[in-house]
Amino acid sequence: MIENIKLFYAFFKIGLFGFGGGYAMLPLIQKEVVEINKWLSFKEFMDVLAISQVTPGPISVNAATFVGFKVNGVLGSFSATLGVSMPSFVIILFLAYIIKKFSSKIKATDYFFQAIRPVVIALILQAAISIGKNSLTGFKELGIAAATFIGIYVLKIHPIAVIFFSAVMGVLLYH
Amino acid sequence: MVSLSKDFIFLLKMFFTFFKIGAFTLGGGYAMIPLMKVEIVEKNKWLKEEEFIDIIAVSQSVPGAVAINTSVYIGYKLRGFIGAVFALFGTVLPSFLSILIIAYFYKEVKKITYFNRAFKGVYPSILVLILCAAFSLWEKALKDYTSYVIFIISFILLFFFNLYPGILILLFGIFGIIKGSYENWKREKEYD
Predict the structure, then answer these.
(1) Contacts of A58 in chain B (CB under 8 A)
(2) Alpha-helix runs per DSSP H in chain A
(3) Within this chain, do residues A145 and A164 fall inside the same structural domain, yes or no?
(4) Which domain holds residue A6?
(5) Residue B59 CA to chain centroid, in angstroms?
(6) Cβ atoms B100, A65 nearer than 8 A
(7) In total, how many domains does chain A have?
(8) Cβ contacts (< 8 Å) between B151 and chain A: which residues?
(9) CA distance A133 to A114
(10) Residues A132, A148 within the same domain
(11) pLDDT tens-digit map of B77-92
(12) Distances (CA, A) of A125 to A157, B10, B82
């Protein structure tokens, strides 16, 4: 039981202080998991990163599930994953409640959101560029990108089907 | 009773939608934006494009994984607290299950080369998907002169100075409130 509480607490901290999500959370995860609690060796931590890159979902949840399982089986996974999601859950519910309460009465929320929408587009573009920098490295990659573009805009295929197709292409193209 | 079961069916539908999104969110939180846009805005019409953009803004500004923040917010918006719980479980479960399986077979799964090859194919595709989502949300966000200026400044600060997104959102949000209130005040004065 004490193991579960420890897992919950460590990953709760990661969820609470992990601003920026994804890779910005890595140093924090490493500190809690490798240095403070010594649940994983550095090499194992690197393995978790490699695994996270080929499995769905946020890196923090992947790490929580993996570390939890190693320390205390499925129950450990559950405690750690619950811990890492809890701060998000509470903070978002609180904010969503406040925004809902004010947005109908106060015009300022309208002004606020109208002004920040362009920031969101800039954010999404920046994310795309940082992915592009590492993934568009040759003709094969450009080919897959072009095929995706045609799939989405011309053939109007569902994105999930497109992702599936490009995974198959990956297996076929890279040896 | 009838409405209760109807609510439950809706919750299940929401759960499976988020499960689907969670299962195909590969390569970081932003990969979920094109999927959510298709599933939640276009197919099920649960949110308007503007609402979707606003939720991304809030989710980016607080700690935690963006995928979790976004789905909890959408779940809450659709069905309150219980909606948020279903959305959270739907999003997290695919990641949870796949890691459990891998952790279980960990010693044997030293060669994840097959997956690696698949993923090399997925990344360029995700890049295009995210770009497409950005451009289709574009016209809802960039409507006037001011919004273009905000976009350009944000892009420069994010890209070249690596500024934390929450700060930009807060700053421009406050700017928006001041500008909107001032214009409103000016209009009212003209009517007097």
Answers:
(1) 25, 29, 65-68, 95
(2) 2-17, 26-30, 42-53, 59-103, 108-135, 139-149, 159-173
(3) yes
(4) 2-103
(5) 7
(6) yes
(7) 2
(8) 118-119, 121-122
(9) 30
(10) yes
(11) 999 999 999 999 999 9
(12) 22, 33, 33
Contact B15, B86 (CB under 8 A): yes
Count CB pairs under 8 A between chains A and B: 344
What is the distance between the alpha carbons of residues B75 and B91, in angstroms, rounded to a whole number?
11
Q: Do B65 and B155 belong together in one domain?
A: no
Task: Find, among B89, B154, B149, the residue nearest to A89 by Cα.
Answer: B89
Residues B159, B91 within the same domain: no
Do residues A134 and A162 share a domain? yes
Nearest CA in chain B to A86: B64
Region of residue B142 (phi > 0: left; psi between -120 and 50: alpha; otherwise: beta): beta
User: What is the predicted ipTM?
Assistant: 0.86
In this prediction the pTM is 0.85
**Cα separations in angstroms, B192 against A172, B39, B130, B178, B187:** 72, 48, 48, 21, 9
Q: Which tokens hold the place of B24?
A: 């195909």
Query: Which residues does A61 contact at the CB level (< 8 Å), separation at least 6?
Result: A81, A84, A85, B65, B68, B92, B95, B96, B99
User: Residue A108, Cβ neighbours under 10 Å: how many?
Assistant: 18
Closest Cα partner for A53 from B117, B67, B127? B117
The model's pLDDT over A14-64, given as tens digits with 9 standing for 90+, comes to 998 877 666 667 878 888 999 999 999 888 888 887 787 778 888 889 999
Residue showing tokens 């099920």: B44
d(CA A120, CA B127): 17
